[in-house]
Amino acid sequence: MSINRQSHRVRTSAKVLRAVLVIGLLILLARIFQLQIIEYETYTPLSMQNSLRMEVVNPARGLIYDKNGIILVENQPIYSITITPSRFNEEKIPHLSQLLQVEEDLVRERMNEAQQYSWHRTSRLFTEVSFETFSAIQENLWQLPGIGHQVESKRNYPTNVKASHVMGYLREATREEYLASEKILLGDKIGKSGLEMIYDDYLRGEVGTEYIRVNAFGQELGSYEDGMLDMAPKKGADLITTLDAEVQQLSEELMVNKRGGIVAMDPQTGGVLSMVSSPQYDLSKLAGRMDSEYWQQINQDPHTPLYNRAISSRQPPGSTFKPFMGLVGLELGLITPQTEIYNPGYYTRGRRYGDLADPGNYNLEDAITYSSNTYFFWIMDRIASRGMLDSWSELIKDFGIGPKNNIDLPYEVSGIVPDSTYMNEQFGDRYWGVGDLMSLGIGQGMVSASPLQMAVATSTIANGGYRVQPHVVSAIKDRSGEFQYTNPVFEKIEWLNPNQLENVKRGMRGVVSTGGGRYYANLDSIEVAGKTGTAQNPYGEDHGWFIAFAPMDNPQIAVAVLVENAGYGSISAAPIASLVIEKYLTRELNRQRVLDYVLDFRSKETQTAEVN
């Protein structure tokens, strides 16, 4: 009996054991089926982490061309070291530090930044390392799991054109910037000024990915599945600018050892032919790994080379304002082209306002040619005393003086064209009068503008009364070769009368042929029209201005030049503008005397600094 019971128990136990084994096997098979079939897409990438490395492949940044197809900005290869924090062993920091030839604390600091960004995504650890360092890291990757490398690029400038304030520079994106964008990765460089900043989304392109087989030591064994899973990067779009490289280079040379700005435009389209803010800075020292000593130097330079005087400065335009005053006087019905005003050598309105023009009668054309202050004081007197300040302000702004002109560059600043609201804010309600407005008539006092604004205003006279939107980029060329044109605004100023414009143009032509601009701005083969200006400066030597367009009968270029602390515009700014015009229209310079004069010219402030 006991033997039978014992045999029964053994058989029962065997059955239970077989059942447990079968159930366990079924569970295992079900789990394998779940992992291998049902959740294949979820777990296969995780299983591959031990044998695959995904590398981010950075796209080539778009190139920048001048209007004639000359490359102004291109790319040059550089080497970067990357880290995937989740795979990196911190005990390897001393070895990595030794290979990179940097302090351990710096490696640890960069690694912590990468960890904060993402534990599992690859980030740049160090950029623009030497080829020797890059090679040393490659040879030791088997000892440094989590460490990788990338071949990237930095900006290169193949011509002698600097255009630092136009092109701009790249810097590494801040933590706030890459957290706010899905397209920016840790260590990415983005545009921080100039075209690089405004068109960054176009220039940057899209990153690609590359899957690489690696062994247990992290050494590369080749691409995975012959690159079937790789995604090629998408090159950034190229920018086609309106700049003329030869004219830009000359403009830069003419402004060496001077402070100020040049803007040369096509008055028919608004395309910027050259733009210079002087002093400039060296973009090549800010490309790739930034020269921190140089960066500190230009930030502390009292001449503020990072400041774009061409579009951001506010200076009284002086007598270059007179052609626009004349057109407003005509529109307000205060004068006709034939109206003559006697100049005794001064204008009296409570006090005497000086006039350097010879005594005599002046109509509008002569008043512009010989720069009679009295004529324009007379107009401003009537504007102020008849309560026309707001109308005057609106009409002046129509030329592009005062408001921003929406150029495709950052940091453009509006000028100042006072109206009654502005005067009330500055002086208080009813605490200002005619005497506070008189100097506005000759471009002095509270009115102020940048070279860009004066170039836009000059273009409206040159092109027959159209306000053009200034722009540097004419087209964006994507990687497929398709062009996207920028289509800037071109707007008719309805109140401008063609006959009145011709009268003003003749006055500006007279400035260059017989007036103050005849010494340096007159060209034998080209009829240039212009206006000199000398703006009073309470902090030092006066500023020199000159605006011009040419040829007279079919204007193809309009120029505004400001030279700070340089005295009379006729001897400081006019020669510069005339050389820019000559170069653009004839493609050569035939006045060596004028070129030498400009290259040797120094502003009074620069001369003093050199002596001291």
From TrEMBL:
Top class in the EC scheme: hydrolase
Occurrences of domain Penicillin-binding protein dimerisation (ranges): 57-222
Superkingdom of the source species: Bacteria
Transmembrane segments: none
Pfam families per the UniProt record, alphabetical: PBP_dimer, Transpeptidase
SUPFAM superfamilies: beta-lactamase/transpeptidase-like, Penicillin binding protein dimerisation domain
InterPro entries in UniProt: Beta-lactam/transpept (IPR050515), Beta-lactam/transpept-like (IPR012338), PBP_dimer (IPR005311), PBP_dimer_sf (IPR036138), PCN-bd_Tpept (IPR001460), Penicillin-binding_protein_2 (IPR017790)
The EC number(s) this enzyme carries: 3.4.16.4
Keyword terms of this UniProt record: Carboxypeptidase, Cell inner membrane, Cell membrane, Cell shape, Cell wall biogenesis/degradation, Hydrolase, Membrane, Peptidoglycan synthesis, Protease, Transmembrane, Transmembrane helix
The Penicillin-binding protein transpeptidase domain, residue ranges: 260-580
Xref: NCBIfam families: pbp2_mrdA
This protein's name: Penicillin-binding protein 2
Provenance organism: Rhodohalobacter sulfatireducens
